[in-house]
Amino acid sequence: MLDHVFLSVTNLKRSIDFYERILAPLGISHVIDYDGAHGPAGHPDLKGFGRDGRVAFWLRLGNADAGAAHIGFVANSIEEVDAFYKEAIAAGATDQGAPGARLHYDPRYYAANVLDPDGYSLEAVYKSWQHPQP
Predict the structure, then answer these.
(1) Is the pTM of this model over 0.85?
(2) 116-131 burial string, b = 16+ CB within 10 Å, else e?
(3) Is the separation of the CB atoms in 112 and 126 below 8 Å?
(4) I need a surface site. Which of 8, 12, 57, 110 has the fewest CB within 10 A?
(5) Taking Cα atoms as reference points, which of 30, 32, 28, 37 lies closest to residue 16?
């Protein structure tokens, strides 16, 4: 449903390094930079992350409002959720929920939750019913 999301961060280099590390287990990487000078007046510089030829998650320098966003990233397996969490904690994220089933949603909803360096709520989630079974 969504094509892209911009997230304002207070330290662009720190956030790029953080997201490069924690999104790698999900197959998401830093794939493009956009120079805001090429856009309309006032357009910010952007750092784009994506996978499979689609860039949907963008960082921009600005004022962070941690309570303004919760971002859930699709994981393709329980193992990807676990790896996301491990890398996030190693990269300095704050634990907000170790990997496991989120029974309050559905027994097949497996996720891990952390806060990024600006305090944004992040989640890696595997919903088995949304993935084809071999």
Answers:
(1) yes
(2) bbbebbbbbbbbeeee
(3) no
(4) 12
(5) 30
